[in-house]
Amino acid sequence: MTRFTALNAVSLTFGFAFLYLPILLLVIYSFNESQLVTVWGGFSTKWYVSLFQNRQLLAAAKISLLVGLVTATLATLLGTLAAIALTRARRLPARSLFQAMTYAPLVMPEVITGLSMLLLFVAIGFDRGFWTITIAHTTFALCFVAVVVQSRLTAFDMSLEEAARDLGAPPVKAFCLVTLPVIAPAVAAGWLLAFTLSLDDLVIASFTSGPGSTTLPMRIFSAVRLGVSPEINAASTILIGVVAVGVITASLATKIGARRGGDQ
């Protein structure tokens, strides 16, 4: 058994500091009384009040939430169907190609995904806006859902569903009543992960957005070009909180699903 040494403690401390100290400073300075982000002028929540009076940021946040909700729902549906096909359709024609295409966005740079989606929408004459962002985000997020759900389906005991079918349940009913409740934590984790990825995305949305469809990360990025303000820090802190809650909830849902699978 490896002992926890002082070197391990120092390495862990520097690692966490490198990753999370900038985020911590951003959160702290979002409560800064001073308008200068690098000068602490005392504790204040006035920038959060000012944030909720900023119509442009609120409109961008509304678009981001709507895109995230629709994207997560579509990506969960399509990703779950893809996971079922990859798990059960062993003789699916061109299965390797289908699997590679499903997982391609996992390793493909976001700038390539965004540019390819932009060229597609321009080629077919589809005006960029809310739905182009949603389609692009769905394409990007469904592969993450497929990975999460497929890992749960791989460990699922098919004899349970087969027993339900032997008792007279149609295939769809057997899946909904037997399989779906078991994999529900993985599906929920996939939905939350897709929502988080959509809410956090900047690159793909920048390529596929149009007039009147600016998302919150895009609005924050454009505002930072003119200088960081505590109001932007407040918006970023709220965004960090939402993303953190989504990731933690997805992780807990995945662990619950794995625990249920181990109890079968």
Description:
This protein has 264 residues and is mainly alpha-helical. The protein folds into two domains: 38 residues, no CATH class; 210 residues, MetI-like fold (Orthogonal Bundle), CATH 1.10.3720. Helix content is 78%, strand content 0%. Helix 4 packs across helix 6. The longest helix is centred in the first third of the chain and has 34 residues. The mean pLDDT is 83.
Query: For the record, what is the CATH homologous superfamily label of the largest domain?
Result: MetI-like
CATH class category label of the largest domain:
Mainly Alpha
Task: Tally the beta strands.
Answer: 0
Tally of separate domains: 2
**H and E string:** HHHHHHHHHHH
Q: What fraction of residues sit in β-strands? A: under 5%
Could you report the average pLDDT, rounded to the nearest whole number? 83
Question: Helical residue percent?
Answer: over 70%
Main beta sheet strand tally, sense and closure: none
Radius of gyration: 22 Å
Going by helix content, strand content and strand pairing, the class is mainly alpha
CATH fold category name of the largest domain = MetI-like fold
| N- and C-termini, Cα separation | 30 Å
CATH architecture classification name of the largest domain: Orthogonal Bundle
Number of helices: 11
- Report the uncertain regions: none
Shape: globular
